[in-house]
Amino acid sequence: MYIKYNFKGVTMFCVQCEQTIRTPAGNGCSYAQGMCGKTAETSDLQDLLIASLQGLSAWALKAREYGIIDHEVDSFAPAPSSPP
């Protein structure tokens, strides 16, 4: 299902790149557009992507505890490497 959002005039809060504004009061771009040129929509979609991958990774680790390994999932959430 595709949902179209209207982000016109929406401000954002973003701390995703090296161009993030850093001040003594705090860090983050909070304008209609970030210092890097990223829009509020792009920032929100990147946050959603990261949250989705974190969830996928958490479930992949839990599945591994039960011996369930899905190589297709491994392409998005690789197995943790063994410590040296």
What report would you give on this structure?
The protein has 84 residues and is mainly alpha-helical. The protein has helices at residues 40-65, 71-74; strands at 22-23, 26-27. Strand 1 (22-23) and strand 2 (26-27) form a beta hairpin. It is elongated. The N and C termini lie far apart (44 Å). Mean pLDDT is 73; it is low at 1-5.
Offer a quick outline of the entry.
This protein has helices spanning 40-65, 71-74, and strands at residues 22-23, 26-27. It is mostly helical and 84 residues long. Its EC number is 1.7.-.-.
Q: How far apart are the termini?
A: 44 Å
Average residue-wise pLDDT: 73
Q: How do the strands line up in the largest sheet?
A: 1-2
Kindly estimate the percentage of residues that lie in beta strands according to DSSP. under 5%
The string of secondary-structure elements, in order, is: EEHH
- The outline comes out as elongated
Radius of gyration: 18 Å
Question: What is the share of helical residues?
Answer: 25-40%
Q: Give the biggest beta sheet.
A: 2 strands, antiparallel
